[in-house]
Amino acid sequence: MPCDHPFTMPGIEDLVVQPPRSVTWRVHLDRSMWVGGVRGLMLQALHPLAMLGVWQNSDFQEDPFGRLRRTADFVGRVTFGSPREADEIGRRVRGIHKALRIRDPGTGRTHRVDDPELLLWVHCAEVSSYLEVARRGGLRLTEREADRYLHEQRKSATYVGLHLDDVPGSCAEMDAYFKQVRAGLRVTEEAAATVRFLMWPRLPRELRLLSAGKPAYFPFGALCYYTLPDWARRMYRALPEVPGATVTAALKAFRLGMNALPEPVHDRAFSAATRDMLRASRERLAAAGYDVSKGLRGLTDPRRRPPEPAA
Hints:
Blueprint: H1 12-15, H2 23-28, H3 33-44, H4 48-57, H5 64-77, H6 83-99, E1 101-103, E2 110-112, H7 116-137, H8 143-158, H9 171-181, H10 189-199, H11 218-226, H12 230-236, H13 244-259, H14 263-266, H15 272-287, H16 295-298
Antiparallel strand pairs: 1-2
């Protein structure tokens, strides 16, 4: 007897926010993202008002890894999460930002954390860092693919409250944005302290037993600093300059080593909630016919996924 309501497999847009064929997957599954994430924080600190917002409204100095993990969770959910998961975290983030204020001691004025100018700065510093570090580390992307990544990331920006059309969607637009805002950037006491802290952080309480190995972190923090744009390093002057080729070689070695880690091992660096989200994503994709035997990274290989409809 024929069924009045035949079962239909969900489309990829019902399973994950960004499809496996996207450039976003290739960038966000690359382990150079850890360097890109810290570099993004260092770059964001150059905006005086944005830096004050972090300084006054977060426990960043007590738990820098927590902030990095929360950022990774947001990026993961608006990439590999379901549309419902992305909408939920978007509402949560917008709700938090809406309630927070920034007090500028220099002017006496109070500013909203969800000011579109500040949200745009944070977004651009973050996604440009992911892209530039991945490419410099050896991820092969054409100029057209790099443009496509930034175009795809406009969707991510909408989850924090930005309008799609106000977000740079190509490398040329991103370059123009940074040229426009650079005049308003400066190294405040808070920014200088943040960069020093990111290179030599205080370990969270649950990791204090690892303090003896803390010096091993410094090369990573320094690598993040040296991947900053030339103009940003000239502003900070936190470390003596080294040849660019040395930085590139170190970044490629870091990326190669991290990319060699099995996905289950690497994912232990994430929070439990993020790991649960990634596991659910793999299960949804497997149920839809995707071969996830090599994890989400395996799906960047076109041979391991069903055809997707053209964008």
